[in-house]
Amino acid sequence: MEKILQTSLTPEHVKLGAKMAPFAGFNMPLQYHSVKEEVIAVRESVGVFDVSHMGEFFVSGPEAVKFVDYALTNDFANAAVGKAVYSPLCRENGTVIDDLIAYKLERERVLICVNASNIEKDFTWLKSISGDFNCKLENCSDDYSLLALQGPDSVAIITTLGVKLGDDFDYYSAREVSSPHGNLIVARTGYTGEDGFEIFGGHETIKVIWSELLKEGVSPCGLASRDVLRLEVAYPLYGHEISDDVTPLDAGLKWTVKAEKESFVGKEALSNYKPKFRLVKLSLEKGIPREGYPILNSEEEEIGTITSGTMSVTLGRGIGIGLVEKDKFPKNKEFKIKVRKNAFAAQYHAKAFVTGGHK
Amino acid sequence: MASLIPETLKYTKDHEWALIEGDIITVGITDFAQSQLGDIVFVELPEVGTRLEKEGTFGVVESIKSVSDLYSPIAGEVVATNSELEDGPEKCNESPYESWMVKLKVENMSDLDELLSPSAYQEICDE
């Protein structure tokens, strides 16, 4: 068995009494006191997540931006310096290797943040397609810790760290900054739908920042509340809505595939692809959708599967997102979810379950 | 954190408590179980009249992120369920020993001999 990894903050989580569990090979905090209270903290005030398990790659050199734009389905070439872009990373056949955020830190320097469970797979892939580009690709995942400071009070809190971001530091901005605790890369991104920041730094720097944030009264939040928060705003999670078996077009991510780009991996396959699935957002009055539960039409024929489900703390209802076979998508938009022995009528949501407060 | 294990009750290795009154037992989940589950948001109970096998599932208790089966400590018939938990599942967190789930009519009184004493259950929690 592989040894379980720690983040630089694992001992802090244990000290705080967090419920710990292995996730993507790391010993991670699932929750501290209460998942419910953590969700409310992020929606109404501010919380902080240790997400140091995630991977960081740097691409540098004259063709760094050109290479990243070629690797991603979304448009990275036209992003301004100091901006970040969310994108799937696809194979030639259009299936999803991972989803990630690429940060254009300088004209010739890009940070890519990837899912922890896909670090090796992504790096091997990127390396294999980078040969024709004049750039250097480095996996620096072991050198960085990462915090996500999320919630409406994030802006007020980040200024207490002595970090100056300026008025133009809007949604999806990214910048290298100095702080009294060491150098950081700060981005106005997150996975909760709320305003907030992701803060990358060396392990010692991030340890200080973590304790400063807790001293300011920021609630420590675990992976369980992070999952509830992302599901409430219907953000996809790799391994659930997207995976090696589907394309971005099967999972409601058409907006991230810029077929008009001159050249990118998967362009031909995705330009001709007829989606097999359609992503649906459903909720139940009674009962909680869970991963793997069948989605039925009003005739109770199975037409799809729930890929992620939870109790929504914000709505007080069970919510789920799932993939429905495109040619079986019911015109009347009437769905049922099979919960153990019973099929319950579900409410169809055209938009996310919750509107986050990010600007 | 030590959890509460009342002396007046019997227990199962699946973290349920049982109050024995003649041939009727009242069943719920223990303080240890509720603290492990975290915020309980849904409880599903059987219909009155359902016959349960010993160690058969009789319902589920769900936290925000998990689904756990409930196991019957004995063979018997469901004679009452606590419908209050359907509207107030958080009561299982707040007062686990008042939040009973089902009352069962015992078929074989010998099943009761296999229930755990408070001290035997304490050992399971300490493991």
What's the SSE blueprint?
The complex is a heterodimer of chains A (359) and B (127).
Chain A: H1 10-15, E1 19-23, E2 26-31, H2 35-44, E3 47-50, E4 55-60, H3 64-71, E5 83-90, E6 96-106, E7 109-114, H4 119-129, E8 136-139, E9 145-150, H5 154-159, E10 174-179, E11 182-187, E12 196-201, H6 203-215, E13 219-221, H7 223-232, H8 267-271, E14 277-284, E15 294-297, E16 302-311, E17 318-325, E18 335-339, E19 342-349
Parallel strand pairs in A: 3-13
Antiparallel strand pairs in A: 1-2, 3-9, 4-7, 4-8, 5-6, 6-7, 9-12, 10-11, 11-12, 14-17, 14-19, 15-16, 15-18, 16-17, 18-19
Chain B: E1 10-11, E2 16-21, E3 24-29, H1 31-37, E4 40-44, E5 51-52, E6 57-63, E7 67-71, E8 76-81, H2 84-87, H3 91-94, E9 102-106, H4 118-126
Antiparallel strand pairs in B: 1-2, 2-3, 3-9, 4-6, 5-8, 6-7, 8-9
What are its keywords?
heterodimer; A: 359 residues; Alpha-Beta Plaits; 3 domains; six-stranded mixed sheet; six-stranded antiparallel barrel; globular; B: 127 residues; alpha+beta; six-stranded antiparallel sheet
What is shown here, in short?
Chain A is an alpha+beta fold and 359 residues long. Chain A has helices at residues 10-15, 35-44, 64-71, 119-129, 154-159, 203-215, 223-232, 267-271, and strands spanning 19-23, 26-31, 47-50, 55-60, 83-90, 96-106, 109-114, 136-139, 145-150, 174-179, 182-187, 196-201, 219-221, 277-284, 294-297, 302-311, 318-325, 335-339, 342-349.
Tally of helical segments of chain A: 8
The Cα radius of gyration of chain A reads 20 Å
CATH superfamily of the largest domain in chain A: Probable tRNA modification gtpase trme, domain 1
Q: What is the structural class of chain A?
A: alpha+beta
Most strands sheet of chain A: 6 strands, mixed
Reading off the top of the CATH hierarchy, the class of the largest domain in chain A is best stated as: Alpha Beta
Oligomer classification:
heterodimer
Please summarize the sheet with the most strands of chain B: 6 strands, antiparallel
Largest interface: A-B, 17 and 11 residues
Q: From the 3D coordinates, which CATH architecture of chain B would you assign?
A: Beta Barrel
Number of helices, where a helix is a run of at least 4 consecutive DSSP H or I residues of chain B: 4
Portion in strands of chain A:
25-35%
Distance between the termini of chain A: 44 Å
The count of β-strands of chain B is 9
Query: Structural class, judged by helices and strands of chain B?
Result: alpha+beta
What is the overall shape of chain A? Answer: globular
Query: Could you list the spans of chain B in which at least 5 consecutive residues all have pLDDT below 50?
Result: none
Characterize the overall form of chain B.
globular
